[in-house]
């Protein structure tokens, strides 16, 4: 049982006008559906009130965002629960107060359910609420029990707009009158339009909004110019904690893609239903520019204040819609002339020749290697000559504990460490704010080591390359591998490396102890750098 100091709680009105750490107790009047999950932590969002339960809206309450890397440590709140939050941080977000429980801090919570004789649910560490906290929580349960609902959509539009939304509210009547269906090539700044397009990329790792890249295969010179060689769409998070992907831009090259930001409730729908390749109809899309001078056109979809629950995104079956069929026709025409298709066909032909040669020459060697009869220190180098034939150009044999010159780390400036030092690294030890010592299962640290490969998985080398199942919709004109069945008809297969190596320390242990071993999962660009070969079927 953890004994937390019970700081005196304040009412919601005081918390709304405060900044810094406060303790609050309130009735949960609104819960964001589902637990949002990012690459770093999970988050639950809810709103608290302690007065005016019958005024029909929840915007005057205190919005809370609670983050935890373990979903089981999030408070499992429901509407009508009363929750105690100790030492939560009050910040300003878009001009309004927001209560934030960051992942790195331990914010005690206790939930009081309206059911009779229901004991408080406490977390993330067990503690006992004080007598005054229990008494106040029970009084809030009694006060709120007379109200059937806390939200009335007919009065919700009376919420005072923030400074950021004053402009959009004032222009809403005009935008409704001017809104019409448009192709991306015809969109102009400061207009509201309806669009039909294909999702090129979608990023959902933000609890407030979703970033969407949409194309209808028409060109607008005011849009950003996307190139085939680079991935221009934002990867990972907006603060660049996560590295950018090395994948090529999957959409059409040129100025055919409109970047837009979806706010709630549209963001929630997009997280659950949209993926790359989806065909969607969007209503009331606001075309605008950012404040950066010379910035390209972009778009946004906000909540409709007159109909807050109205959803302006809809998935459509393009074949059953006249404008959808036109979109499919333009898409087919574009991919006929896209250079990536011709390059893919050439790579497919080359990889087919390489595959046949390797199967005929290495069948016996592969069987012996799987049985452990051959040494992994033997190195062979192949090249494709001008006539398209794969020929052996070099054979090397390395000495024991010596790394082939052709196998080098990508970061030569980093000092080499042994596997023993890597596995026992002090970076894995950590101390929580409550002075609890624990060991992290992994750390995002770049190491460099000299190792020997002693085993690999999958057992068959031809299974090191797998199809890239990234959720792309089939291109109607794409050429496919002949070895695929009819279910993949019309799909351009992309291959990627994905395999596992079992490695051990190359130099023997000075004390004669067994060498440490480690599993290395190799995929994508790392495997290409290691093998000096692109993945193919």
TrEMBL record:
SMART domains associated with the record = Telo_bind (SM00976)
Q: Look up and give the organism this protein is from.
A: Aspergillus thermomutatus
**Name of the featured protein:** Protection of telomeres protein 1
GO molecular function list: G-rich strand telomeric DNA binding; telomerase inhibitor activity
Mark out the compositionally biased spans (Basic and acidic residues). Answer: 469-482
Q: Which UniProt keywords apply?
A: Chromosome, DNA-binding, Nucleus, Telomere
Q: Which GO terms describe its biological process?
A: regulation of telomere maintenance via telomerase; telomere capping
**Any idea where this protein resides?**
Chromosome, Telomere; Nucleus
**Chief location bin:** nucleus
Respond yes or no to whether keyword Nucleus is given for this record: yes
Asked if DNA-binding is a keyword of the record, the answer is yes
Which InterPro entries does the UniProt record give?
A: NA-bd_OB-fold, POT1, POT1PC, Telomer_end-bd_POT1/Cdc13
Q: Which residues form the Telomeric single stranded DNA binding POT1/Cdc13 domain?
A: 9-145
For this chain, the family text in UniProt reads: Belongs to the telombin family.
Q: Which Gene3D superfamilies match?
A: Nucleic acid-binding proteins
- In this chain, the stretch annotated as Disordered covers 336-375, 465-486
Q: Name one GO cellular component term.
A: nuclear telomere cap complex
């Amino acid at each position: 049982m953890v004994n937390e100091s019970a700081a005196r709680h304040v009412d919601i009105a005081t918390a709304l006008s405060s900044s810094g750490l406060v303790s609050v107790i309130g009735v949960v009047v609104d819960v964001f559906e589902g637990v949002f999950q990012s690459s770093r932590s999970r988050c639950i969002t809810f709103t608290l009130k302690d007065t005016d339960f019958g005024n029909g809206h929840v915007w005057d309450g205190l919005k809370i965002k609670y983050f935890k890397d373990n979903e089981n440590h999030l408070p499992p709140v429901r509407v009508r629960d009363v929750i105690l939050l100790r030492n939560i941080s009050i910040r300003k977000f878009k001009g309004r107060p927001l209560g934030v429980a960051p992942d790195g801090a331990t914010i005690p919570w206790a939930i009081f359910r309206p059911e009779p004789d229901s004991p408080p649910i406490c977390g993330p560490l067990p503690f006992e609420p004080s007598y005054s906290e229990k008494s106040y929580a029970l009084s809030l349960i009694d006060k709120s029990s007379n109200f059937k609902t806390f939200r009335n959509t007919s009065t919700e539009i009376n919420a005072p707009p923030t400074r950021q939304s004053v402009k959009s509210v004032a222009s809403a009547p005009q935008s409704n009158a001017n809104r019409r269906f448009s192709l991306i090539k015809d969109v102009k700044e400061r207009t509201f339009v309806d669009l039909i397009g294909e999702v090129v990329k979608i990023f959902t790792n933000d609890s407030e909004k979703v970033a969407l890249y949409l194309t209808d295969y028409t060109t607008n010179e005011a849009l950003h110019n996307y190139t085939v060689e680079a991935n221009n769409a934002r990867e990972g998070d907006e603060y660049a904690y996560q590295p950018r992907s090395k994948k090529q831009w999957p959409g059409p090259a040129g100025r055919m893609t409109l970047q837009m930001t979806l706010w709630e409730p549209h963001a929630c729908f997009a997280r659950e239903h949209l993926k790359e390749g989806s065909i969607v109809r969007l209503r009331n899309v606001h075309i605008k520019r950012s404040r950066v001078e010379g910035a390209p056109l972009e778009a946004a979809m906000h909540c409709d204040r007159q109909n807050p629950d109205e959803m302006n995104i809809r998935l459509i079956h393009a074949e059953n819609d006249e404008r959808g069929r036109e979109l499919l026709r333009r898409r087919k025409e574009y991919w006929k002339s896209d250079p990536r298709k011709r390059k893919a066909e050439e790579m497919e032909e080359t990889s087919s020749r390489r595959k046949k040669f390797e199967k005929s020459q290495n069948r016996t060697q592969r069987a012996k290697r799987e049985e452990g009869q051959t040494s992994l220190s033997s190195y062979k180098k192949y090249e494709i000559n001008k006539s398209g034939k794969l020929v052996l150009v070099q054979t090397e044999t390395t000495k024991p504990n010596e790394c082939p010159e052709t196998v080098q780390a990508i970061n030569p400036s980093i000092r080499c460490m042994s596997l023993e030092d890597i596995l026992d690294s002090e970076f894995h030890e950590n101390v929580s704010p409550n002075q609890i010592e624990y060991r992290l299962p992994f750390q995002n640290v770049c190491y460099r080591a000299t190792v020997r490969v002693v085993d690999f998985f999958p057992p068959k080398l031809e299974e090191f390359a797998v199809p890239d199942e990234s959720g792309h919709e089939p291109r109607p004109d794409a050429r496919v591998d002949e070895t695929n069945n009819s279910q993949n008809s019309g799909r351009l297969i992309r291959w990627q490396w994905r395999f596992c190596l079992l490695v051990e320390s190359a130099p023997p242990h000075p004390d004669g102890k067994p060498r440490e071993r480690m599993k290395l999962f190799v995929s994508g660009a790392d495997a290409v750098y290691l093998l000096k070969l692109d993945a193919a079927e």
